[in-house]
Design a protein that fits this description.
Largest sheet: 4 strands, mixed
Strand order of the largest sheet: 1-4-3-2
Order of helices and strands: EHEEEEHEEEH
Strand content: 25-35%
Shape: globular
Structural class: alpha/beta
Radius of gyration: 15 Å
Oligomer: single chain
Length: about 130
């Protein structure tokens, strides 16, 4: 998976705080993050974007976001916000998960293992205003 961003090295270091692992790069425009267990690989590519699209925006194109399992939502949120993330205004997960925005403007979620393993049929639907996603 490749994330477009204005500063690939900075964003790769941010995500390394979540998944651990090693950074590799052959130039200033592309960085590879390989997770410690080898199961995760994220690529970061320099793209000169203007402002990121706010989340959620029903008029915005569909986008992908990453979900990460953490032991403690409050602790993980505080740590990642100290690294440059910010809490999204809309929090549809209640106490189950948190939506954060990374330093480049990409939304991502933090969830506890219990929340991440809850069968989808047992999770109440949340209206975020998006249609057809």
């Amino acid at each position: 998976m490749t994330l477009d961003c204005p500063d690939p090295h900075a964003l790769a270091r941010f995500y390394r705080e979540i998944v651990g692992g090693d950074l590799r790069s052959s130039n200033d425009d592309f960085v590879v993050l390989s997770g410690t267990d080898g199961a995760v690989r994220l690529d970061f590519q320099r793209v000169q974007n203007s402002e990121p699209v706010p989340w959620p925006d029903p008029a915005a194109a569909r986008r992908l976001h990453l979900d990460f399992v953490v032991d403690d939502l409050d602790e993980a949120e505080a740590h990642l916000c100290s690294m440059g993330a910010r809490r999204a205004e809309l929090q549809p997960g209640g106490d189950r998960f948190r939506v954060l925005i990374d330093p480049a403007g990409h939304p991502f979620c933090l969830a506890t293992a219990q929340a991440a393993s809850t069968p989808s049929g047992q999770v109440p639907e949340v209206d975020t205003g998006r249609r057809g996603v």
